[in-house]
Amino acid sequence: MKKFTFKGVLDGFRQSVQPQATRQEQEIQEQLKADHFTLKKTFRHGFPYSPTSFAFDPVQKLLAIGDKSGYIRILGRPGVDAHAKHEGESECAVLFAQFLVNEGALVTVTADDTIHLWSIRQKTPRIVQSLKFQRERVTCIHLPVGSKWLYVGTEKGNIHVVHIDTFALSGYIINWNKAIEVVRTSHPGAVIALCDNPLDANKLLIAFECGLLVLWDLKAKCAELRWQAAEAVKSLAWHYEGKYFVSSHTDGSICSWPTKPQAKPQSQVCPHAKINKDGNAEKCKPIYKVDLKSSATGETFTIFSGGMPSEKGSKSNCITVMVGKATTVLEMEHAVCDFITLCENPWPCETQEPYAIAVLLQYDLVLIDLLTPGFPCFESPYPMDLHESPVTCCTYLTDCPSDLVPAFYSVGRTTTSKKSCFSEREWPISGGEWSPASCSYSEIVITGHQDGSLKFWDSGAGTLQILYKLKTAKMFEKPRSHVAHSHPESDNPLAVHLIFLCSESRRLCVAGAMGQVMLFKFRKVESTSEVLVLEIPILYENFDDIYGTSPECDFLTGHQVQKAESSDSDKTAECSLKVRNGAQRKPPGFQSQLVCLTTGPNRRNVQVTSLCISSSYGLMAYGTEYGLVIIDIIQKICLLSVACPDLYGAHDPYSRTPKSPKRIENKEEQSRSPSSDQKSFVSNKKRVKKTDFLIKWKNKLDGTFSRSRSSSMSSIDMSSSESVTCLAFIESYAKRNDILTLVPTLWIGTSFGSILTLFITMPERDVRKSQPVLITINGGPVVRLKGSITSMSFLDSYGSIIPYTFETWRDEKRDNKDRTPTKSSSRTSPTFTPTTANTLSNTSVAGGASAGGGAGGGGGAGGGAASGGAAAGGPAGGGGGAGAGSAAGAASGSGSGVTSGGGMSSSSASSSGISGSVSTGLETLTDRQYIVIASEKQTKVFDVANQCCINRIQLSEMDFAVKAETITMKDGSCLATYLSNGHLMVHSLPSLKLLLDTDFLPLMELSFQTKCKQGIVDPMLSIWGQQIIVHEDTTQISKIFCFSHKGHGLYMASPTEIQKFTISSEFCQFILEMMGELYTVHEMPEQPKEGFFKGLFGGGAKLLDREELFGEQSGKPNRSVARHIPGPNLEQLGQRASTAASEISRAHQLAMERGEKLNLLEERAERMANTAQDFSGTAHQLMLKYKDKKWYQL
Fold first, then answer.
1. Locations of Low complexity compositional bias (predicted)?
2. Is the CATH number of domain 45-128 3.30.70?
3. Is the N end or the C end of the chain the one with fewer CB atoms within 10 Å?
4. What would the pLDDT profile of 862-882 be if each residue is shown by its tens digit?
5. Is the model's pTM score more than 0.90?
């Protein structure tokens, strides 16, 4: 019999716990490294904001648009879309642009009076060289077709000539005093327009601001003819025969001038002037530009912008086309910036054959077909209508199910019929070459708009194409106009604030400006039904006591409660949205299922700050500026409506005690729902069965690890309400060290930095539609951070994002059969056990794409939409118990590799196939679960099972996180953060090791999205009152800034443009392959030659040797007029040349030194040889001397 000893018991105990201890202390092998990350802006989509210049190449068929921010956009055929920006001092408005026809080059003039030469022979345009005028301001430019000399008009009235190739200023100059001579005694003003005679290049027509027109003889260096217009001149245009030209004026008139000495114009007309009762013509607006083109049939097109009557109610923003006696007025939706007549023939000395007009509007690009009767417009292939209604939020989903894009396209095509008013001819801007790049995953961008609409875009292969448009305004009655200003959001009550899309179940949740939350379900067939409405109040015993101070809230989060007086309660109720009564027709696509109208104190509308849905649980949760609401989307009832203080139970750290003396004692039998006062919900004037809220208060938090914080951290005393900013559904551990039980849980993040949990008890699947879902309030914060919570995400024991479970979408047309999975398989967890087998058989566990806040639910600061990386972890609608909570996957063929999983707030989740093997051992249940929590000031990685913080980082005092997301990239996950100082940081998970920190985007560039519209106040230079504006603004900015999986992201660069970027080094290598070629080889049409008879009798085109006239023989230019600035390539070339020259001289010097050393060595060797020879001779003589002597004779 073995002897019992105490030492043996201890040894046995050590052996039993040793494997578990080793398992708990193992380190996660992180796959991502710093060299995997490179930040680069990729593609820009939308319409250039505030365009200022316009240019067209008639041979290459490329269009260039410059804007006030210094950007140049070059457009060709669909897919050929390049953008570049002027840097440095020239980062300002692009005043003029002109192509070098068929040369693959572009000349631009910026507001700092610098002329730039761009090369577009490569996929990305780049500046070759620049010329900055120092004494004069540039007011116009003119480059004749086929010429290398650019005419530059200035504000002082002078005309300079610049050589395009060298960007050298010519000594030839036309001074204003020589141009006017004795005609005027005062300065004529700036040069407004320049153009040469189409048949005689020696004659240059100059228009001055005062209305003086001068025909200048370049060779004779004198004015040949002068005319004085009665009104100021706006533009000039020659007839192709060169016998006359037309000018447009500020009084709305067009004058025709022959090339003869004549005091008055040959004809003067005001096309849109009306004759009043007195017989006088009414005043008209200026004609800003006029163009004169001719066709082979002899028709002359007179095209101009403006000139409409100035009286009230008259049309404006028009393009007028006059052909013979017919006049056609084309009214535009926006102000006309510029227009260009597109012609087949680039040479102005022949009939140009116009076929279209390109009109640049303030917010659109329109092409008019001149060859079709009625002049219809071409249908634009570009996404120029992105800003049709201002964008209020957006989300970016990568690696979506492959059948989602075709599904959106099919319903978008059926609901949007092609307008018959468009021209049937092909889009005329067809320059460049582009072939769609093959991409292994789909990309979808969803934009929410101010008018309540949502647009779904296919953003794969570097393009942006509209798929489907959803209008939520059809669900509501039109709001009353007399209460338009009773609510801060009532001007735009339908504006979309938050979006959540579960791409696998195809359920969509949308939150609006007035607190409305709408649930949609995707269907391919049309239906007609009523919309169920739930009116949900968020109740609290005394809302006056919600106001308090967060112990570590160093600044306000922007969710300020605006107290409504009792007298205003009627007004606030009137401005609430009302859903239309009766059955509504619902076209194919997303069809409304449920509308939740949430109200706060005095029935005022509340702001929705976070949104989340779990299709597997059948639950939807959304947070407001006051509290939390949970909806059962299967039974369509409200399960919970609770204010934030009640989420803490008896563990509220902020001591918000109601003033009411009738405070309920802490007794189990008196525990009630905070929403028990709600009697019923209204649905189209029909009563809905009263919902019993089953809530269990958990006054004692088992193993709580909320730590008290020092009161000294409370540096300010401000009143702010606590709002729910982040939500996530996940199967998580219920108690500390209880790693055997995974229960459905809702994790909640608040604006005070608290993380709270609610436990969900699901009924069995077969009784899911009849039995209630039980919600248990855990009570007390699990963990607290500084600042408002922006995102949450869950990791498994391998460091991968835990994918969410979902209910797959079913096509109702196919007898409710399950949809065939679009992926080859679904990812399972290394912790896959028989306990979860039944769950996984009914729900596909994958990192599928979802938007809105799945793992960190797109909070108020998180904004926009998010993906559900950890959105849900339970069975498909039933079975509480243990589920696939720690699901992620090992790498293929490996049990410990890190693989990509789902996502977190305001991003999309990736989907992958099964990897790793199925494990059923008991040790797999000991896998840990981590939660990555990001706030405005801190980031923490928390061990859920052991309830302890394992890693943390904290931002500096003056910086805060505007957006933070957990994303998957390559074989791992990381945390991407955009900071208020403009930096973008990437940290590895779960170690929070810094992988990337680079200056990316100043926050000021996104200030157009702010409410104050005056830019963002610098927190270092502001008082606390101004800082409130800062963080309110960044809340809105975070809604239009998105991170997504695979290292992609986007933001609204302007009110009309989306800018995409990437942090993936691997993707940066393929960007050029996805871009289109701008320049293609085209044969230049031959220049018309002067015929014998035309040369004999006149009328043929006369050539001008500009090289002889403007070259070295013209003399040396004044160096103080302009300064040449070599481009980056020339500088690099010069540096390389100088480096090579220095290397050659250095090598030459070394060779010389080596030769000298060799000569010295040779001399030394020769001396040594001579010395050795002398020594040998002396030794021989000494030997001969003593050869015959004996030793004793020495």
1. 822-848, 905-918
2. no
3. N
4. 344 433 333 333 333 333 333
5. no
Q: DSSP for 608-629, please give it.
A: EEEEEEETTTTEEEEEESSEEE
Query: Which residues are within 8 A (CB) of 68 and not within 5 positions of it... i.e. 6 or more apart?
Result: 49, 50, 51, 52, 92, 93, 94
**pLDDT at 103 exceeding the cut of 90:** yes
Determine contact, residues 273/239, Cβ cutoff 8 Å. Answer: no
Q: What is the separation, in whole angstroms, between the first and last Cα of the chain?
A: 109
The CATH architecture of the domain made up of 237-384 is: 7 Propeller (2.130)
**CB-based burial, 192-207: b 16+ in 10 Å, e otherwise:** bbbbbbbbbbbbbbbb
d(CA 499, CA 517): 10
Cα of 720 vs its chain's centroid, Å:
31
Torsional sign, CA 884, 886, 891, 894 = negative
- Cβ atoms of 455 and 589 within 8 Å: the answer is no
Q: Any bridge partners for residue 976, and if so which? A: 965, 986
The pLDDT tens digits of the residues spanning 409-428 come to 999 887 655 566 899 999 99
Q: Are 1000 and 978 contacting, i.e. CB atoms less than 8 angstroms apart?
A: yes
All residues at 6 or more sequence positions from 598 whose CB lies less than 8 Å from its CB, including other chains: 515, 516, 517, 536, 537, 538, 605, 606, 608, 622, 624, 629, 641
Q: One fold for both 133-228 and 237-384?
A: no
Residues 750, 689: Cα–Cα separation, whole Å: 32
Contact by Cβ (8 Å): 390, 449: yes
Determine which helix (DSSP H) or strand (DSSP E) holds 512, and give its type and residue range: strand 507-512
- H/E element, 226: strand 222-228
Q: Is residue 593 very low, low, confident or very high in pLDDT (cuts 50, 70, 90)?
A: very high
Q: Would you tell me which CATH number, out of the four given (3.20.20.10, 3.90.190.20, 2.40.10.480, 3.40.640.10), belongs to the domain 133-228?
A: 2.40.10.480
Using an 8 Å Cβ cutoff, are 383 and 73 in contact? no
For position 1051, what pLDDT does the model report? 96
Helix (H, G, I), strand (E, B) or coil at 875: coil
